[in-house]
Amino acid sequence: MKRNMDWEDLRLFLAVARAGGLAGAAARTGVSAATLGRRVSSLEKSLNLRLVEREARGYRLTPAGRDLLRQVEDMDTAAGSIAAWRDSGSLRRRIRISAGEWTTRLLIDNLSGFWSPEADWVPEFLADLRNRDVARRQIDIGVRNSRPAQAWLAGQRVGHVEYAVYQAGHVPSGSEPGWIGLAEDEAHSHSGMWLKEHHGGEAGITVNRATLALPLLRQGRGRMLLPVFVGDAYPDLVRVSDPIESLRTERWLVMHQDERHEPAVRHAVSALAGMLKRNPQMSPAP
Hey, where are the domains in the chain? Predict the structure, then answer.
């Protein structure tokens, strides 16, 4: 039965092949000639191939040895590239950030307010309604609407979110268009339940994502409940209600207790908190 290959054997074989023998390879690697000889023999056994012919003046590669040399040289080149990448300082922590779709849009629109390419972390945005599991490291930071209850989670309050009713500014005064409804998972969200309870019978067009309602709203196809940071950002929309108190939620950054002091996570939390506490608006799309 063939033995598993040892990657260190391959590295030392490369040194022996390039030096043409044990003495030269020993001088380059600092590994004794006896050890080098044993490692080459070990590699031959694991491959079940004769790689070198042992001659008085050194080692001569067999055809199989020459084939292996070409492949190991490719590995050495790749290893050199990886080392250069590591030493260049580009090895940065990828921070997975989970939030609802509106908040994810808000973060992306305000990206330059909390992140730059020189930071020691890189954001990865996950937009959905699911509370991805911080404890199981599915994400690094969650933007949530309440303080975390679990002892293994840490949280930082960074503001609040308000909702109001909006419609297109070009809708004639005194006209009351119907409502744009929510379906599937969105219908069970906090705002979706409010719409169903108060205006369920008035819904015309329905969408399964609240973000899809925005172009319909701007066309004057109905009224819609929006976060104030979204609705107030569009000059062609007007509020037709005060902020609805029962829909007001807090905004929290949630992370794992064991990770909160890790430098990249700490820097990301600090940057996000600083931006969100300024209560930014989403950037209006054309």
Answer: 7-87, 93-158+249-276, 163-247
